[in-house]
Amino acid sequence: MPIGASAYPGPQQLAFDFYRVPQRPLPKRATDNLYFAVLPDPEAARRMTEVGARFRERYDLPGRVHPAHLLHISLAHVGLFAGLPAPIVSVARRAGAAIRMAPFEVSFDRVIGFSGGQHSLVLRCARGDGEFTELRKAIAGTMLRAGFRADPSVGLTPHVTLVYNGLTVPPTMLDQPISWTVRELVLVDSLQGRSRHVHLGRWPLQA
Fold first, then answer.
1. H or E segment to which residue 183 belongs
2. Total structural domains in the chain?
3. Phi, psi of 19 (to 5 degrees)
4. Half-sphere exposure of residue 121, counting CA atoms within 13 Å on the CB side?
5. CA 206, CA 13: separation in Å to the nearest integer?
6. Which of 14, 36, 159, 180 could form a disulfide with 44 if both were Cys (CB 3.0 to 4.6 A apart)?
7. Alpha carbon 154 to chain centroid distance?
8. CA 94/CA 101 separation, integer angstroms
9. How many angstroms separate the CA atoms of 184 and 37, rounded?
10. Which ranges of the chain have pLDDT less than 70?
11. Which domain holds residue 189?
């Protein structure tokens, strides 16, 4: 069943929350978290896990390092659901397929601890912020035309979460930035409590 605009774990995690009108209450037990994201390429993901492990050891963080296959940059939240609704997935897939944008370069060069929420250890973006903004606005436009409404109160700071339940870590520059070319948009179904992501759609970026 679809739910209303939702609060996603982690500060400034998502660019937009979408919801049908009228809003419905959150399910007591959500099973699926649906959102659009960008994924690091395999080499960037490998380096990110190494950074996470190094900082986890340095600051004795209690949380585990996210595995490479779960690393992502969230762009737009479609919703939390108790059972994945096929009509919503269909609309989101159409929205993803309608995006027209050229590939772009990104670079993440800082590690920082978010002090709120789950005290996450994250990588922050040094290059590509403008392109991420452009991409998330494009997603919002296609979703709005499909009958969804965006909650503009949810901001976006492009980042990759490396460790949950960590202590606050002072901002630290990496010796070498982690960079790659973003070439596709992905619709992710995060299976709640199972540490598993299912990719329901992948679309190459093209102008």
1. none
2. 1
3. -155, 150
4. 29
5. 25
6. 180
7. 13
8. 15
9. 9
10. 1-28, 115-118, 149-155, 166
11. 17-204
- Quote the tokens at residue 71: 């690393």
Specify if 7 maps to a domain: no
Specify the pLDDT at position 27.
Answer: 55
Beta-sheet strands, E only, within 97-155: 104-113, 121-127, 149-151
Entry field: residues in the chain: 207
User: HSE on the CB side for 41, CA within 13 Å?
Assistant: 12
Q: Which secondary structure element, helix H or strand E, spans residue 79, and what is its range?
A: strand 73-81
**Which tokens hold the place of 132?**
């991420």
For 12, the 3-state DSSP assignment is coil
Q: In the 8-state DSSP scheme, what is residue 46?
A: H
Q: What is the CATH number of the domain that holds 108?
A: 3.90.1140.10
Determine the residue type at 165. Answer: N
The answer to the question of residue 117 being in a domain is yes
The model's pTM is 0.84
Phi, psi of 130 (to 5 degrees): -65, -40
Q: How far is CA 173 from CA 40, 109, 159, 166, in A?
A: 19, 6, 14, 18
